[in-house]
Amino acid sequence: MSPIIEIRDLQKTYAGGFQALKGVTLDIDAGEILALLGPNGAGKTTLISTICGITNPSRGTVAVDGHDVVRSYRQARQMIGLVPQEINLEPFTTVIDTVRFSRGLFGKPRDDAYLEKILRQLSLWDKRSARTMELSGGMKRRVMIAKALSHEPRILFLDEPTAGVDVELRKEMWDVVAELKAGGVTIILTTHYIEEAEAIADRVGVINGGELLLVEPKADLMRRMGQKHLQIELQDTLPEIPESLNAHDLELDPEGHILRYTYDTRKERTGITGLLTDIAAAGLVLRDIQTQESSLEDIFVTLVKENAA
């Protein structure tokens, strides 16, 4: 896949001297879903705003399908649909008129068949004649997505798209994103919900303090940085870890019932066989053993902590 967005040494310094972006370089491939993860103030929204032409870069370049976002703003912006964090809709306008108006802002001719397709895809067709003030929060967020798609963009930015949405509706939104990708739309989303990135992203980017720490295929990142944990439930309460087990670097839960052992599956030896042998020699009786793999959230927290150190 060829890059549809090319970012080179992107920097943004606001009045007062705060540097929100510190030399970000990134290629985003056509047709992929890229999830940008980062704590509040990391630079996620500034990065999106700069790509979309809402704010100008202090240094560096951004090209959208070959169009520079500063010199060729109109051509670049025509390619992009943006769903911001804030829900901002005219309360007395109907859903269909809201979407028609957004399409018209980009100079597109009226196409009710296309808008019907979008509204059906977002489960909004039955609400097309409802005023936006009558909709639930989740439905309003869907209208925001419909507005962003109204002019047939090839790139869709979703800035915290499921904030404040219940779990069931969030999963429905993931299905919508998957359908959009299947239709050839490139999707970049920022999210605080790690499971969201884990569920739908092709690649994951971690940004913190205005710097892009890494961008990798999700599966590669989890394989490279993920660890496994062996959770050993004991028959009896243990006041402390026996000295004979200190070499295994175990953790004991506060209630004294569970030992936790972390190991790297990439190594030739995990140390599990020796651990279980030493546990038996210490006279400990096991009730249950479970293995767990690091989640994307564990990896994200580790990366941010390492960057802050």
TrEMBL record:
GO molecular function, one term: ATP hydrolysis activity
UniProt key word Transport: yes
Domain ABC transporter: 5-234
Keywords, ordered alphabetically: ATP-binding, Nucleotide-binding, Transport
Cited InterPro entries: AAA+_ATPase, ABC_transporter-like_ATP-bd, ABC_transporter-like_CS, ABC_transporter_ATP-binding, P-loop_NTPase
Top-rank taxon: Bacteria
UniProt-listed Pfam families: ABC_tran
Protein name according to UniProt: ABC transporter ATP-binding protein
Originating species: Shimia litoralis
